[in-house]
Protein backbone atom coordinates (compact mmCIF):
# COMPACT_ATOMS: atom_id res chain seq x y z
CA UNK A 1 0.00 0.00 0.00
CA UNK A 2 1.17 3.49 -0.94
CA UNK A 3 -0.24 6.69 0.49
CA UNK A 4 -0.30 9.85 -1.62
CA UNK A 5 0.58 12.62 0.86
CA UNK A 6 0.64 15.27 -1.89
CA UNK A 7 -0.58 14.64 -5.42
CA UNK A 8 1.84 16.82 -7.40
CA UNK A 9 0.84 18.54 -10.65
CA UNK A 10 -0.66 15.59 -12.50
CA UNK A 11 -0.05 11.98 -11.60
CA UNK A 12 -2.12 9.34 -13.40
CA UNK A 13 -2.16 5.57 -13.78
CA UNK A 14 -1.16 4.52 -17.31
CA UNK A 15 -0.32 1.32 -19.15
CA UNK A 16 0.29 0.44 -22.81
CA UNK A 17 -3.09 1.87 -23.79
CA UNK A 18 -6.67 0.86 -24.38
CA UNK A 19 -6.42 -0.94 -27.72
CA UNK A 20 -9.21 -2.57 -29.67
CA UNK A 21 -11.88 0.07 -29.14
CA UNK A 22 -10.82 2.85 -31.49
CA UNK A 23 -13.50 1.77 -33.95
CA UNK A 24 -15.96 2.78 -31.23
CA UNK A 25 -14.30 6.15 -30.79
CA UNK A 26 -12.52 5.15 -27.57
CA UNK A 27 -9.28 7.07 -27.15
CA UNK A 28 -6.18 4.86 -26.69
CA UNK A 29 -4.40 6.81 -23.89
CA UNK A 30 -1.53 4.95 -22.21
CA UNK A 31 1.96 6.08 -21.19
CA UNK A 32 3.27 9.09 -23.14
CA UNK A 33 6.82 7.69 -22.89
CA UNK A 34 6.21 4.04 -23.68
CA UNK A 35 9.88 3.02 -23.34
CA UNK A 36 10.27 4.50 -19.84
CA UNK A 37 6.98 2.85 -18.84
CA UNK A 38 8.02 -0.58 -20.12
CA UNK A 39 11.55 -0.44 -18.70
CA UNK A 40 10.34 0.66 -15.24
CA UNK A 41 7.99 -2.33 -15.12
CA UNK A 42 10.71 -4.75 -16.21
CA UNK A 43 13.16 -3.41 -13.61
CA UNK A 44 10.80 -4.56 -10.84
CA UNK A 45 10.03 -7.91 -12.50
CA UNK A 46 6.61 -6.93 -13.92
CA UNK A 47 5.37 -7.50 -17.49
CA UNK A 48 5.41 -4.32 -19.62
CA UNK A 49 1.62 -4.22 -19.62
CA UNK A 50 1.29 -3.53 -15.87
CA UNK A 51 0.14 -0.07 -14.76
CA UNK A 52 2.70 2.56 -13.74
CA UNK A 53 2.34 6.03 -12.28
CA UNK A 54 2.91 8.73 -14.89
CA UNK A 55 4.31 11.68 -12.95
CA UNK A 56 4.37 15.08 -14.69
CA UNK A 57 6.73 18.01 -13.99
CA UNK A 58 6.00 18.38 -10.25
CA UNK A 59 6.05 15.02 -8.54
CA UNK A 60 3.90 13.74 -5.69
CA UNK A 61 4.92 12.91 -2.13
CA UNK A 62 4.39 9.22 -1.50
CA UNK A 63 4.62 7.31 1.77
CA UNK A 64 5.29 3.58 1.60
CA UNK A 65 3.09 1.71 4.05
CA UNK A 66 4.98 -1.53 3.42
CA UNK A 67 8.35 -2.58 1.99
CA UNK A 68 8.43 -2.17 -1.79
CA UNK A 69 10.62 -2.63 -4.86
CA UNK A 70 10.22 0.33 -7.21
CA UNK A 71 11.84 1.78 -10.33
CA UNK A 72 11.77 5.34 -11.67
CA UNK A 73 12.35 5.83 -15.41
CA UNK A 74 11.99 8.70 -17.87
CA UNK A 75 12.74 12.31 -16.98
CA UNK A 76 14.83 13.33 -13.98
CA UNK A 77 12.63 15.05 -11.40
CA UNK A 78 15.34 14.84 -8.72
CA UNK A 79 13.73 12.05 -6.64
CA UNK A 80 14.57 11.84 -2.92
CA UNK A 81 13.81 9.08 -0.42
CA UNK A 82 13.78 10.39 3.16
CA UNK A 83 15.83 13.33 1.89
CA UNK A 84 18.52 11.29 0.10
CA UNK A 85 18.91 11.51 -3.70
CA UNK A 86 17.99 8.27 -5.42
CA UNK A 87 18.98 7.05 -8.86
CA UNK A 88 16.60 6.48 -11.78
CA UNK A 89 16.65 3.55 -14.25
CA UNK A 90 17.44 0.87 -11.64
CA UNK A 91 15.52 -1.22 -9.08
CA UNK A 92 15.24 0.38 -5.63
CA UNK A 93 14.23 -1.41 -2.44
CA UNK A 94 12.26 1.00 -0.19
CA UNK A 95 11.53 0.34 3.47
CA UNK A 96 8.09 0.65 5.06
CA UNK A 97 7.47 4.12 6.44
CA UNK A 98 9.81 5.91 4.03
CA UNK A 99 8.81 8.90 2.00
CA UNK A 100 9.48 9.55 -1.69
CA UNK A 101 9.33 13.09 -2.97
CA UNK A 102 10.62 14.97 -5.99
CA UNK A 103 12.69 18.11 -6.34
CA UNK A 104 13.24 20.48 -9.23
CA UNK A 105 12.97 19.20 -12.76
CA UNK A 106 16.44 18.37 -14.12
CA UNK A 107 15.76 16.82 -17.53
CA UNK A 108 12.69 15.60 -19.38
CA UNK A 109 9.08 16.20 -18.31
CA UNK A 110 7.58 12.89 -17.18
CA UNK A 111 8.76 10.06 -14.96
CA UNK A 112 7.25 6.58 -14.61
CA UNK A 113 7.14 4.72 -11.33
CA UNK A 114 6.58 0.98 -11.30
CA UNK A 115 6.17 -1.11 -8.17
CA UNK A 116 6.87 -4.85 -7.96
CA UNK A 117 3.62 -6.83 -8.22
CA UNK A 118 1.89 -3.85 -9.80
CA UNK A 119 -0.75 -1.38 -8.64
CA UNK A 120 -4.10 -3.01 -7.93
CA UNK A 121 -6.25 -1.13 -10.46
CA UNK A 122 -9.37 -2.68 -12.03
CA UNK A 123 -9.10 -2.62 -15.84
CA UNK A 124 -11.79 -0.84 -17.85
CA UNK A 125 -12.05 -2.18 -21.41
CA UNK A 126 -8.91 -4.28 -20.84
CA UNK A 127 -6.75 -1.35 -19.76
CA UNK A 128 -5.89 0.51 -16.56
CA UNK A 129 -4.94 3.72 -18.41
CA UNK A 130 -6.58 6.91 -17.22
CA UNK A 131 -8.47 8.95 -19.82
CA UNK A 132 -9.34 12.11 -17.90
CA UNK A 133 -11.78 13.67 -20.39
CA UNK A 134 -14.14 10.70 -20.20
CA UNK A 135 -13.26 9.96 -16.52
CA UNK A 136 -12.30 6.49 -17.71
CA UNK A 137 -9.98 3.89 -16.19
CA UNK A 138 -7.04 4.44 -13.83
CA UNK A 139 -7.66 5.44 -10.22
CA UNK A 140 -11.39 6.34 -10.17
CA UNK A 141 -11.05 7.87 -13.64
CA UNK A 142 -9.01 10.80 -12.34
CA UNK A 143 -5.55 12.06 -11.49
CA UNK A 144 -4.28 11.23 -7.99
CA UNK A 145 -5.32 13.55 -5.16
CA UNK A 146 -3.96 14.19 -1.67
CA UNK A 147 -4.78 11.31 0.65
CA UNK A 148 -5.39 8.66 -2.03
CA UNK A 149 -4.12 5.18 -1.19
CA UNK A 150 -2.91 2.77 -3.85
CA UNK A 151 -2.99 -0.96 -3.15
CA UNK A 152 -0.30 -3.11 -4.70
CA UNK A 153 -0.35 -6.80 -5.59
CA UNK A 154 2.12 -9.41 -4.33
CA UNK A 155 5.20 -9.90 -6.49
CA UNK A 156 6.25 -13.30 -7.77
CA UNK A 157 8.54 -15.67 -5.86
CA UNK A 158 11.59 -14.65 -7.95
CA UNK A 159 11.01 -10.94 -7.37
CA UNK A 160 10.41 -11.57 -3.68
CA UNK A 161 13.85 -13.21 -3.42
CA UNK A 162 15.49 -10.10 -4.94
CA UNK A 163 13.61 -7.97 -2.40
CA UNK A 164 14.88 -10.21 0.41
CA UNK A 165 18.47 -9.80 -0.78
CA UNK A 166 18.15 -6.01 -1.02
CA UNK A 167 16.41 -5.84 2.37
CA UNK A 168 19.41 -7.64 3.82
CA UNK A 169 21.89 -5.32 2.03
CA UNK A 170 19.85 -2.29 3.06
CA UNK A 171 20.71 -2.61 6.74
CA UNK A 172 19.33 0.36 8.69
CA UNK A 173 19.06 2.63 5.63
CA UNK A 174 15.76 3.83 4.15
CA UNK A 175 16.42 2.34 0.74
CA UNK A 176 18.88 0.29 -1.28
CA UNK A 177 19.51 0.68 -5.02
CA UNK A 178 20.33 -2.50 -6.89
CA UNK A 179 23.79 -2.65 -8.49
CA UNK A 180 22.79 -2.57 -12.16
CA UNK A 181 21.43 0.32 -14.21
CA UNK A 182 19.90 0.55 -17.71
CA UNK A 183 22.43 1.47 -20.46
CA UNK A 184 22.48 5.10 -21.51
CA UNK A 185 21.10 4.62 -25.03
CA UNK A 186 17.64 4.26 -23.49
CA UNK A 187 18.06 6.94 -20.84
CA UNK A 188 19.68 9.92 -22.57
CA UNK A 189 17.98 13.20 -21.70
CA UNK A 190 16.31 15.53 -24.17
CA UNK A 191 18.21 18.72 -24.87
CA UNK A 192 16.70 21.95 -26.16
CA UNK A 193 16.86 22.05 -29.94
CA UNK A 194 16.22 18.33 -30.17
CA UNK A 195 15.74 16.85 -33.62
CA UNK A 196 12.60 14.80 -34.08
CA UNK A 197 12.50 12.41 -37.03
CA UNK A 198 9.30 12.43 -39.09
CA UNK A 199 7.91 10.80 -42.20
CA UNK A 200 5.69 12.48 -44.78
CA UNK A 201 2.08 12.77 -43.63
CA UNK A 202 -0.81 11.67 -45.83
CA UNK A 203 -1.46 15.26 -47.04
CA UNK A 204 2.23 16.33 -47.11
CA UNK A 205 2.16 16.98 -50.87
CA UNK A 206 -0.80 19.36 -50.60
CA UNK A 207 1.22 21.91 -48.57
CA UNK A 208 2.96 24.81 -50.32
CA UNK A 209 6.65 24.47 -51.16
CA UNK A 210 7.48 27.29 -48.72
CA UNK A 211 5.53 25.59 -45.93
CA UNK A 212 7.21 22.25 -46.46
CA UNK A 213 10.60 23.95 -46.52
CA UNK A 214 9.84 25.93 -43.36
CA UNK A 215 8.60 22.78 -41.63
CA UNK A 216 11.86 20.98 -42.34
CA UNK A 217 14.26 23.82 -41.54
CA UNK A 218 12.71 26.21 -38.98
CA UNK A 219 12.52 25.52 -35.23
CA UNK A 220 9.12 25.01 -33.58
CA UNK A 221 8.41 25.82 -29.92
CA UNK A 222 6.25 23.65 -27.68
CA UNK A 223 3.27 25.77 -26.59
CA UNK A 224 2.35 26.00 -22.90
CA UNK A 225 -1.21 24.80 -23.59
CA UNK A 226 0.09 21.35 -24.53
CA UNK A 227 -1.32 18.34 -22.71
CA UNK A 228 -1.63 14.56 -23.07
CA UNK A 229 -3.95 15.03 -26.05
CA UNK A 230 -1.58 17.06 -28.16
CA UNK A 231 0.97 19.83 -28.31
CA UNK A 232 0.70 22.97 -30.37
CA UNK A 233 3.89 23.91 -32.19
CA UNK A 234 4.63 27.60 -32.50
CA UNK A 235 6.63 28.48 -35.61
CA UNK A 236 6.06 29.54 -39.20
CA UNK A 237 2.41 29.21 -40.27
CA UNK A 238 1.89 26.28 -42.63
CA UNK A 239 -0.46 26.65 -45.57
CA UNK A 240 -1.84 24.33 -48.20
CA UNK A 241 -2.08 24.85 -51.95
CA UNK A 242 -5.70 23.74 -51.96
CA UNK A 243 -8.99 24.58 -50.20
CA UNK A 244 -10.45 21.10 -50.53
CA UNK A 245 -12.21 19.85 -47.42
CA UNK A 246 -10.95 16.58 -46.06
CA UNK A 247 -13.12 13.70 -44.93
CA UNK A 248 -12.35 12.50 -41.39
CA UNK A 249 -9.90 9.59 -41.22
CA UNK A 250 -7.89 7.80 -38.56
CA UNK A 251 -5.02 9.66 -36.89
CA UNK A 252 -2.22 8.17 -34.78
CA UNK A 253 0.12 8.94 -31.86
CA UNK A 254 2.64 11.33 -33.45
CA UNK A 255 0.46 12.59 -36.30
CA UNK A 256 1.16 16.27 -37.00
CA UNK A 257 -2.02 17.89 -38.27
CA UNK A 258 -2.47 21.49 -39.37
CA UNK A 259 -5.78 23.29 -38.64
CA UNK A 260 -6.82 26.28 -40.77
CA UNK A 261 -4.90 28.76 -38.58
CA UNK A 262 -1.66 27.17 -39.83
CA UNK A 263 -0.34 26.21 -36.38
CA UNK A 264 0.54 22.51 -36.34
CA UNK A 265 -0.67 20.20 -33.58
CA UNK A 266 1.32 17.09 -32.67
CA UNK A 267 -1.16 14.44 -31.52
CA UNK A 268 -0.21 12.47 -28.41
CA UNK A 269 -1.48 9.60 -26.23
CA UNK A 270 -4.97 11.04 -25.55
CA UNK A 271 -5.59 12.01 -29.20
CA UNK A 272 -9.00 11.51 -30.77
CA UNK A 273 -9.29 8.39 -32.90
CA UNK A 274 -10.12 10.29 -36.11
CA UNK A 275 -9.51 13.79 -37.45
CA UNK A 276 -10.32 15.95 -40.44
CA UNK A 277 -7.31 18.26 -40.59
CA UNK A 278 -4.53 17.82 -43.16
CA UNK A 279 -1.59 15.78 -41.87
CA UNK A 280 1.79 17.18 -42.86
CA UNK A 281 3.93 14.64 -41.07
CA UNK A 282 4.13 11.72 -38.69
CA UNK A 283 6.71 11.35 -35.91
CA UNK A 284 8.69 8.10 -36.11
CA UNK A 285 7.67 5.82 -33.23
CA UNK A 286 11.28 5.64 -32.01
CA UNK A 287 11.24 9.42 -31.39
CA UNK A 288 7.92 9.52 -29.52
CA UNK A 289 9.63 9.06 -26.11
CA UNK A 290 11.68 12.21 -26.89
CA UNK A 291 8.44 14.07 -27.67
CA UNK A 292 6.89 12.82 -24.42
CA UNK A 293 9.81 14.33 -22.49
CA UNK A 294 9.59 17.81 -24.09
CA UNK A 295 8.49 20.62 -21.85
CA UNK A 296 6.60 23.79 -22.84
CA UNK A 297 8.96 26.42 -24.23
CA UNK A 298 11.43 23.94 -25.69
CA UNK A 299 12.44 24.16 -29.35
CA UNK A 300 12.44 21.23 -31.74
CA UNK A 301 13.51 20.65 -35.32
CA UNK A 302 12.01 18.14 -37.69
CA UNK A 303 14.11 15.86 -39.87
CA UNK A 304 12.40 14.04 -42.72
CA UNK A 305 13.16 10.33 -43.09
CA UNK A 306 11.44 7.71 -45.27
CA UNK A 307 8.63 5.52 -44.05
CA UNK A 308 10.86 2.51 -44.66
CA UNK A 309 13.62 3.96 -42.43
CA UNK A 310 11.05 4.75 -39.75
CA UNK A 311 9.74 1.19 -39.68
CA UNK A 312 13.23 -0.42 -39.61
CA UNK A 313 14.28 1.98 -36.81
CA UNK A 314 11.29 0.73 -34.84
CA UNK A 315 12.24 -2.90 -35.49
CA UNK A 316 15.84 -2.23 -34.37
CA UNK A 317 14.66 -0.53 -31.19
CA UNK A 318 12.35 -3.39 -30.33
CA UNK A 319 15.18 -5.86 -30.79
CA UNK A 320 17.44 -3.85 -28.48
CA UNK A 321 14.65 -3.54 -25.91
CA UNK A 322 14.10 -7.31 -26.03
CA UNK A 323 17.83 -7.81 -25.34
CA UNK A 324 17.61 -5.37 -22.43
CA UNK A 325 14.59 -7.20 -21.01
CA UNK A 326 16.37 -10.56 -21.27
CA UNK A 327 19.31 -9.00 -19.40
CA UNK A 328 17.06 -7.59 -16.68
CA UNK A 329 15.17 -10.87 -16.38
CA UNK A 330 18.44 -12.72 -15.74
CA UNK A 331 18.84 -10.65 -12.54
CA UNK A 332 15.65 -12.21 -11.20
CA UNK A 333 16.60 -15.82 -11.91
CA UNK B 1 -11.94 -1.87 -57.32
CA UNK B 2 -10.04 1.40 -57.14
CA UNK B 3 -8.21 1.04 -53.84
CA UNK B 4 -5.20 3.03 -52.60
CA UNK B 5 -2.86 2.34 -49.70
CA UNK B 6 -0.87 4.66 -47.48
CA UNK B 7 1.08 4.23 -44.24
CA UNK B 8 -0.20 5.95 -41.07
CA UNK B 9 3.02 6.08 -39.11
CA UNK B 10 5.18 2.97 -38.88
CA UNK B 11 2.57 0.65 -37.36
CA UNK B 12 -0.60 1.20 -39.38
CA UNK B 13 -1.87 1.12 -42.96
CA UNK B 14 -4.81 3.06 -44.36
CA UNK B 15 -6.82 1.45 -47.15
CA UNK B 16 -8.88 3.96 -49.12
CA UNK B 17 -11.98 2.75 -50.98
CA UNK B 18 -13.15 6.06 -52.46
CA UNK B 19 -12.96 9.83 -52.18
CA UNK B 20 -16.53 10.86 -51.34
CA UNK B 21 -19.08 10.19 -48.64
CA UNK B 22 -21.58 7.90 -50.31
CA UNK B 23 -23.33 4.58 -49.81
CA UNK B 24 -21.25 2.74 -52.39
CA UNK B 25 -17.94 3.60 -50.69
CA UNK B 26 -19.49 2.93 -47.28
CA UNK B 27 -20.56 -0.52 -48.48
CA UNK B 28 -16.96 -1.35 -49.48
CA UNK B 29 -15.63 -0.13 -46.13
CA UNK B 30 -18.22 -2.23 -44.36
CA UNK B 31 -17.44 -5.29 -46.44
CA UNK B 32 -13.72 -5.00 -45.67
CA UNK B 33 -14.45 -4.53 -41.95
CA UNK B 34 -16.66 -7.64 -42.03
CA UNK B 35 -13.87 -9.59 -43.67
CA UNK B 36 -11.51 -8.59 -40.83
CA UNK B 37 -14.15 -9.49 -38.23
CA UNK B 38 -14.67 -12.92 -39.78
CA UNK B 39 -10.97 -13.83 -39.87
CA UNK B 40 -8.74 -13.95 -36.84
CA UNK B 41 -5.65 -11.93 -37.76
CA UNK B 42 -3.19 -12.33 -34.93
CA UNK B 43 -0.74 -9.66 -36.17
CA UNK B 44 -3.46 -7.01 -36.24
CA UNK B 45 -3.84 -4.74 -33.18
CA UNK B 46 -7.14 -3.16 -34.21
CA UNK B 47 -8.88 -1.40 -37.08
CA UNK B 48 -10.81 1.84 -37.54
CA UNK B 49 -13.44 2.17 -40.29
CA UNK B 50 -14.22 5.73 -41.47
CA UNK B 51 -16.31 7.29 -44.28
CA UNK B 52 -13.91 6.23 -47.04
CA UNK B 53 -11.11 4.24 -45.38
CA UNK B 54 -10.18 1.44 -43.04
CA UNK B 55 -6.99 1.91 -41.01
CA UNK B 56 -5.41 -1.25 -39.65
CA UNK B 57 -2.93 -1.10 -36.78
CA UNK B 58 -0.48 -3.99 -36.82
CA UNK B 59 2.49 -5.31 -34.86
CA UNK B 60 5.62 -5.18 -37.10
CA UNK B 61 7.49 -7.59 -34.80
CA UNK B 62 4.79 -10.27 -35.09
CA UNK B 63 4.85 -9.83 -38.87
CA UNK B 64 8.62 -10.30 -39.02
CA UNK B 65 8.24 -13.55 -37.11
CA UNK B 66 5.62 -14.75 -39.63
CA UNK B 67 7.30 -13.47 -42.78
CA UNK B 68 9.51 -15.81 -44.79
CA UNK B 69 11.67 -12.92 -45.97
CA UNK B 70 13.24 -10.81 -43.18
CA UNK B 71 14.18 -8.14 -45.77
CA UNK B 72 10.55 -7.40 -46.64
CA UNK B 73 9.26 -4.29 -44.91
CA UNK B 74 6.37 -5.25 -42.59
CA UNK B 75 4.22 -2.58 -44.28
CA UNK B 76 4.77 -4.22 -47.68
CA UNK B 77 3.95 -7.63 -46.24
CA UNK B 78 0.66 -6.28 -44.84
CA UNK B 79 -0.20 -4.56 -48.13
CA UNK B 80 0.29 -7.82 -50.02
CA UNK B 81 -1.99 -9.68 -47.59
CA UNK B 82 -4.70 -7.05 -48.01
CA UNK B 83 -4.45 -7.20 -51.82
CA UNK B 84 -5.08 -10.94 -51.57
CA UNK B 85 -8.08 -10.42 -49.30
CA UNK B 86 -9.62 -7.85 -51.64
CA UNK B 87 -9.79 -10.47 -54.39
CA UNK B 88 -12.43 -12.43 -52.53
CA UNK B 89 -14.04 -9.50 -50.82
CA UNK B 90 -17.10 -9.43 -53.07
CA UNK B 91 -18.21 -12.73 -51.57
CA UNK B 92 -18.01 -11.35 -48.02
CA UNK B 93 -21.42 -10.86 -46.50
CA UNK B 94 -22.08 -7.99 -44.14
CA UNK B 95 -25.36 -9.07 -42.55
CA UNK B 96 -28.57 -7.07 -42.28
CA UNK B 97 -28.05 -3.60 -40.78
CA UNK B 98 -29.51 -3.04 -37.33
CA UNK B 99 -31.97 -0.23 -36.74
CA UNK B 100 -31.58 1.64 -33.45
CA UNK B 101 -34.34 3.96 -32.21
CA UNK B 102 -33.15 7.13 -30.47
CA UNK B 103 -35.83 8.98 -28.50
CA UNK B 104 -35.27 12.77 -28.50
CA UNK B 105 -36.86 15.56 -26.50
CA UNK B 106 -36.65 18.46 -28.95
CA UNK B 107 -36.36 22.17 -28.15
CA UNK B 108 -36.63 23.96 -24.81
CA UNK B 109 -33.58 23.84 -22.57
CA UNK B 110 -32.43 20.63 -24.28
CA UNK B 111 -32.37 22.26 -27.72
CA UNK B 112 -31.15 25.84 -27.19
CA UNK B 113 -30.35 26.27 -30.92
CA UNK B 114 -33.62 24.90 -32.35
CA UNK B 115 -34.92 28.43 -32.86
CA UNK B 116 -31.70 29.52 -34.58
CA UNK B 117 -31.80 26.51 -36.93
CA UNK B 118 -35.44 27.32 -37.79
CA UNK B 119 -34.69 31.00 -38.41
CA UNK B 120 -31.57 30.22 -40.43
CA UNK B 121 -33.59 27.98 -42.76
CA UNK B 122 -36.76 30.18 -42.72
CA UNK B 123 -38.80 27.44 -41.10
CA UNK B 124 -40.94 27.01 -38.00
CA UNK B 125 -39.36 25.11 -35.08
CA UNK B 126 -41.90 22.30 -35.55
CA UNK B 127 -40.86 21.98 -39.23
CA UNK B 128 -37.23 21.46 -38.16
CA UNK B 129 -38.35 18.75 -35.72
CA UNK B 130 -40.54 17.03 -38.34
CA UNK B 131 -37.79 17.09 -40.97
CA UNK B 132 -35.24 15.79 -38.45
CA UNK B 133 -37.63 12.93 -37.55
CA UNK B 134 -38.15 12.01 -41.22
CA UNK B 135 -34.48 11.52 -42.17
CA UNK B 136 -33.16 8.22 -43.49
CA UNK B 137 -30.14 7.89 -41.22
CA UNK B 138 -27.01 5.79 -41.47
CA UNK B 139 -24.05 5.66 -39.05
CA UNK B 140 -21.00 6.03 -41.31
CA UNK B 141 -18.42 5.91 -38.56
CA UNK B 142 -17.74 6.32 -34.85
CA UNK B 143 -15.10 8.88 -33.95
CA UNK B 144 -14.32 12.27 -32.35
CA UNK B 145 -15.30 10.95 -28.89
CA UNK B 146 -16.11 7.53 -27.39
CA UNK B 147 -19.35 6.30 -29.01
CA UNK B 148 -19.89 9.49 -31.06
CA UNK B 149 -21.66 8.64 -34.35
CA UNK B 150 -21.13 10.46 -37.64
CA UNK B 151 -24.63 10.21 -39.11
CA UNK B 152 -25.50 10.79 -42.77
CA UNK B 153 -28.93 11.19 -44.34
CA UNK B 154 -30.27 14.40 -42.81
CA UNK B 155 -32.63 16.56 -44.88
CA UNK B 156 -30.43 19.38 -46.17
CA UNK B 157 -33.18 21.99 -45.69
CA UNK B 158 -32.40 21.96 -41.94
CA UNK B 159 -28.62 22.17 -42.27
CA UNK B 160 -26.68 24.94 -40.54
CA UNK B 161 -22.95 25.61 -40.04
CA UNK B 162 -21.30 24.99 -36.68
CA UNK B 163 -21.29 27.77 -34.08
CA UNK B 164 -18.40 30.19 -34.53
CA UNK B 165 -17.53 29.99 -30.83
CA UNK B 166 -17.77 26.38 -29.64
CA UNK B 167 -19.46 25.80 -26.29
CA UNK B 168 -17.11 24.89 -23.44
CA UNK B 169 -19.30 22.03 -22.34
CA UNK B 170 -22.12 20.18 -24.09
CA UNK B 171 -24.20 17.76 -22.00
CA UNK B 172 -24.14 14.05 -22.84
CA UNK B 173 -27.03 13.05 -25.12
CA UNK B 174 -27.31 16.41 -26.89
CA UNK B 175 -28.54 16.08 -30.48
CA UNK B 176 -27.00 18.57 -32.86
CA UNK B 177 -26.60 19.73 -36.42
CA UNK B 178 -23.31 20.69 -38.10
CA UNK B 179 -23.51 21.46 -41.81
CA UNK B 180 -25.39 18.62 -43.47
CA UNK B 181 -24.73 16.22 -40.63
CA UNK B 182 -26.61 15.39 -37.47
CA UNK B 183 -25.06 13.73 -34.45
CA UNK B 184 -25.46 12.87 -30.79
CA UNK B 185 -22.90 13.86 -28.13
CA UNK B 186 -21.99 10.58 -26.45
CA UNK B 187 -20.08 12.15 -23.55
CA UNK B 188 -19.91 15.63 -22.07
CA UNK B 189 -17.37 17.53 -24.15
CA UNK B 190 -16.69 20.95 -25.68
CA UNK B 191 -18.20 21.31 -29.15
CA UNK B 192 -19.64 23.59 -31.82
CA UNK B 193 -22.76 21.80 -33.10
CA UNK B 194 -26.16 23.51 -33.14
CA UNK B 195 -28.17 21.77 -30.41
CA UNK B 196 -31.82 20.94 -31.19
CA UNK B 197 -32.67 18.35 -28.51
CA UNK B 198 -31.43 15.68 -26.15
CA UNK B 199 -31.79 11.91 -25.80
CA UNK B 200 -31.88 10.06 -22.46
CA UNK B 201 -30.23 7.10 -24.21
CA UNK B 202 -26.62 6.43 -23.17
CA UNK B 203 -24.51 6.06 -26.31
CA UNK B 204 -21.27 5.22 -24.49
CA UNK B 205 -21.34 2.42 -21.90
CA UNK B 206 -17.80 1.63 -20.72
CA UNK B 207 -19.07 -1.24 -18.55
CA UNK B 208 -20.67 -3.05 -21.50
CA UNK B 209 -19.25 -4.98 -24.42
CA UNK B 210 -19.21 -3.45 -26.96
CA UNK B 211 -19.06 -0.09 -25.16
CA UNK B 212 -20.55 1.91 -28.03
CA UNK B 213 -24.33 1.52 -28.46
CA UNK B 214 -24.00 2.43 -32.14
CA UNK B 215 -21.69 0.78 -34.67
CA UNK B 216 -20.68 1.88 -38.15
CA UNK B 217 -23.35 0.63 -40.57
CA UNK B 218 -26.29 0.92 -38.16
CA UNK B 219 -29.56 2.57 -39.30
CA UNK B 220 -31.07 5.16 -36.95
CA UNK B 221 -34.65 6.29 -36.35
CA UNK B 222 -35.29 9.34 -34.18
CA UNK B 223 -38.58 9.55 -32.26
CA UNK B 224 -39.98 12.58 -30.44
CA UNK B 225 -40.60 12.35 -26.68
CA UNK B 226 -41.86 14.81 -24.04
CA UNK B 227 -39.74 16.21 -21.22
CA UNK B 228 -41.61 13.95 -18.80
CA UNK B 229 -40.83 10.87 -20.90
CA UNK B 230 -37.21 12.03 -21.09
CA UNK B 231 -36.86 12.02 -17.31
CA UNK B 232 -38.70 8.68 -16.97
CA UNK B 233 -36.35 7.07 -19.49
CA UNK B 234 -33.34 8.74 -17.87
CA UNK B 235 -34.20 6.92 -14.62
CA UNK B 236 -34.38 3.58 -16.44
CA UNK B 237 -31.01 1.85 -15.89
CA UNK B 238 -31.32 -0.12 -19.15
CA UNK B 239 -31.63 3.07 -21.18
TrEMBL record, chain A:
<keyword id="KW-0547">Nucleotide-binding</keyword>
<protein>
    <submittedName>
        <fullName>Biotin-dependent carboxyltransferase family protein</fullName>
    </submittedName>
</protein>
<dbReference type="Pfam" id="PF02626">
    <property type="entry name" value="CT_A_B"/>
</dbReference>
<keyword id="KW-0067">ATP-binding</keyword>
<dbReference type="GO" id="GO:0005524">
    <property type="term" value="F:ATP binding"/>
</dbReference>
<feature type="domain" description="Carboxyltransferase">
    <location>
        <begin position="23"/>
        <end position="320"/>
    </location>
</feature>
<keyword id="KW-0378">Hydrolase</keyword>
<dbReference type="InterPro" id="IPR003778">
    <property type="entry name" value="CT_A_B"/>
</dbReference>
<dbReference type="InterPro" id="IPR029000">
    <property type="entry name" value="Cyclophilin-like_dom_sf"/>
</dbReference>
<dbReference type="InterPro" id="IPR052708">
    <property type="entry name" value="PxpC"/>
</dbReference>
<dbReference type="GO" id="GO:0016787">
    <property type="term" value="F:hydrolase activity"/>
</dbReference>
<dbReference type="GO" id="GO:0016740">
    <property type="term" value="F:transferase activity"/>
</dbReference>
<keyword id="KW-0808">Transferase</keyword>
Automatic annotation (TrEMBL), chain B:
<dbReference type="InterPro" id="IPR010016">
    <property type="entry name" value="PxpB"/>
</dbReference>
<dbReference type="GO" id="GO:0005524">
    <property type="term" value="F:ATP binding"/>
</dbReference>
<dbReference type="Pfam" id="PF02682">
    <property type="entry name" value="CT_C_D"/>
</dbReference>
<dbReference type="InterPro" id="IPR003833">
    <property type="entry name" value="CT_C_D"/>
</dbReference>
<protein>
    <submittedName>
        <fullName>5-oxoprolinase subunit PxpB</fullName>
        <ecNumber>3.5.2.9</ecNumber>
    </submittedName>
</protein>
<keyword id="KW-0378">Hydrolase</keyword>
<keyword id="KW-0067">ATP-binding</keyword>
<feature type="domain" description="Carboxyltransferase">
    <location>
        <begin position="3"/>
        <end position="214"/>
    </location>
</feature>
<dbReference type="GO" id="GO:0017168">
    <property type="term" value="F:5-oxoprolinase (ATP-hydrolyzing) activity"/>
</dbReference>
<dbReference type="InterPro" id="IPR029000">
    <property type="entry name" value="Cyclophilin-like_dom_sf"/>
</dbReference>
<keyword id="KW-0547">Nucleotide-binding</keyword>
